[in-house]
Structure formats: structure tokens, C-alpha cells
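Intended use. Records like the one below are meant for learning the mapping from a protein sequence to its folded structure. Do not use them to infer anything beyond what is encoded.
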Amino acid sequence: MSDLQERYDFAIGLAVEAGALARRMRGAMAAADAKSRLDFCTEADLAVERLIRERVTTRFGDTMIGEEDGGDASDSVWVVDPIDGTTEFIHGTQRWCISLAYLRAGQIEIGVIYAPDDDRLFAARAGGGAFLNGRPMSVSHLAHGAVPVVECGWSERRPLATFTDLLHRLVAGGIEFRRHGSGALGLADVACGLNDGYIELHINAWDALAGILLVREAGGCTNDFLADGGLRNGACLVAVTPELVARIADTLTASSGPIRWFPPCPS
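Structure written out for the chain above:
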């Protein structure tokens, strides 16, 4: 077994273990701590991140960057959101998940997202395809024949007016929009064809990297998130079925500048 295959199998098992821990803690949590007006951290976030860090360090000795406790990048690094969609988690909805990505030499090699409440496990390895609960998945390719639907995440790091301008431009271009509260699951939904795209004008790496690989391995297109400094500072994120590349590029160029697509993507 290759070391990447070993890490891939490990990530799948770890995501399920971490999800089980979060679910056990959910009913007995103290009040959440506010990191900002709209961003929260619970005891479960901290406990899950500690679990993942301990497992990764013990098994492989790799470094890890987590949402809650940070960490150092290296040529062999895990990037982890212990609970993406913490507000949804607090409010008792199913829209939250565990997100694990593994990078080697600056490239995303493994991405795993697990949504415990509805038992959806998304997994991808670079060059090996993308899977939902073990079955191959694909972006929509607009095969539904209906109006395209794009989920739009919002970050406090960008002005609200910029976000609403994006929504106006999408609607003017004949594209519907949604917002469901988890960037990682928004990307997973693109990868399995439930949505046709995901856009967030600023998103952090731990929310994005696993989902980026899922979309690419499922036949979709993303911008070159890491080339834009996304690992450390976050960046704009665009992930779409290939048939939307030109329309989304026109929409975003008008509001936030040209997109640097991660090859290969149609122009």
C-alpha cells in the first residue's frame, strides 16, 4: 500500500470517528464562544480538532493547520475544519460536517468531508476520482436542463455590499442562488451534482481545500485557490460545473476581477 493510499484510508476513518465525537458532545455543550459577531466556537470544535491532531501526529508525524488552534505548514500537512457549519451545529440542523484535506508539496492530494447527521461521506484522492458513500460522483454538467443554481457563501472579510452585488449579477445572468451555511458542504454539493456551483468572495483554507479536490475529481472546475495565497490568508473561491465557466467568469470579472482557473478548465 502506498503512503498516500494509507493516508486516504486513514482520513476516511478519522472523519467518521470525529463526526461521532461531535454528535456525542452536541447535547451537553456549554454556551458557544463568539470569535466574532457571526463566528462561533464550541467545546465540540475544540475537542474534535484535538482528536484529529493527536491521530495525525501519532500516525504520521505530519504537521496540521486547524481552524481553532492553527498550526504550521510543511511539505506534508493536513488542513482541517473540525466542524464546518458551527452555527448550524449549534442550532440543531444537519448542515455541518468534518472537513479534512491533506497536501503534499503544495498540492491537494486527499479531501474528505463527512456530514454525520445524514451519514454522507465524500472522499477524493488526486487522480483517483470522487466518491459519495463509496459510489462515484459527478458534477451536474447542467444535465437537469433547468436554471443553474449556485450557492454563495458570505464572509465578514468582504463588504456586504460586494456580496449583494454578486447576487444581483448572478440573477441578471439567469442564475439562481442559495446560501446554506457550510462552505465545505456547499462544495460537496457541487461535486455530487446537487448544485451547479459555489462562490465565496473570501473563504479560509480549512473550509475549502477538501471540497476543492472533490469538485475537481468529480469533473468540475475551480479557481487556483492556493496560488492566490489561500493556504495562509484565505482567498476567493469559485467552483462550478464546466458548462458555467464562461458565465461565472464574466460575472466575477465585473465585480472582483478576472479568475485564474486551475487547469484544465474550458475558457
